[in-house]
Amino acid sequence: MTTSREQIIEKTCELLEIQGYHGTGLNQIVKESGSPKGSLYYYFPGGKEELAVEAIQQAGTMVLKRIRHNLSLVDDPAIAIREFIMNIAINVERSGYAKGGPITTIALETASSSEQLRAVCDQIYQDWQKAFSEKLQTVHLPERAASMSTLIIAAIEGGVILCRTSKSRNPLERIAEEIYFLVGS
Amino acid sequence: MTTSREQIIEKTCELLEIQGYHGTGLNQIVKESGSPKGSLYYYFPGGKEELAVEAIQQAGTMVLKRIRHNLSLVDDPAIAIREFIMNIAINVERSGYAKGGPITTIALETASSSEQLRAVCDQIYQDWQKAFSEKLQTVHLPERAASMSTLIIAAIEGGVILCRTSKSRNPLERIAEEIYFLVGS
DNA sequence: GTCTATACACTGATAGAC
DNA sequence: GTCTATCAGTGTATAGAC
Q1: What integer is the mean pLDDT of A31-40?
Q2: CA B157 → C1' C7, Å?
């Protein structure tokens, strides 16, 4: 069972990822989600900002689950993380270089203009960082695991930008290899 | 001597960096730059897109010069790059976490919607990558230098996002240290 | 709960006087 | 070259019928 509310959030996640916050209009969301505009403000009285907060939260949580799941498949952190990044590269390519980094654009666009959205993005990045850090602590000291995790997340976010901009999965593939060296050494 | 044209470009660079492409209106650019709207379309008949292309190009070139200059100050690539990243961290903090990554947001926002802007951002990233790569080739093989450079640029772009989102210069500082280990090993 | 109609500000862009 | 006035379109948000 898919409610109107869920359809709206789902479509918002997709459009925000491709077009960003200011590039995505509410009209487009209601039109493409097939839900009526009346429902949008019924479910999200706070308007666009509230809707974006929920969408970003959902997208961030889904990615967190994927990180945890993928990293649990392989014992060696270096290999597990390399494969995870390689998967992202393939997914970015599959989307025609339109998707990848579901919260990246919003984090940048709204960091200075919406305290709410900034805080949500900040929390999500912290959650991701913790997930990588826990895995890395099986072979590294906690402090080093923490800084490695920060580098990994930054490199993935930046790598997605380079892939989308160059229309090539090559940047993330190179990054995956370099991170593999760093984590394994 | 500062012409209207230069004032407009200057202000556009600043606003695009803080607010992104869709978040920045032409009225705001005209108003804050002190130039008349009539001049905008006189100098940039292609409208917003043409103006953004010139602004991005100028910002990208300035960064390229800064990369080359900073990397030339120290012989050891590992130290030079670490100091460069540390400087970025300080500058992001100084701007109140509003600036940093003059082309990042535009690259993400327009990669799928404007072929012109995508191409310009792509070229700029390639120029930056080449600058790092040349420095790294003094101690690494060409292929390795290339992939390290890609990681460095991605890590900086992503690191700026993390700093702005968390309102802390800590992420870029951690990243600087990790990159130092990687390049120096 | 859902839908239509609409208010009202603002967008990018243009025309024409000066 | 510069400026004002203004266009058509779209943005978010709201009101009120059903």
Answers
A1: 86
A2: 42
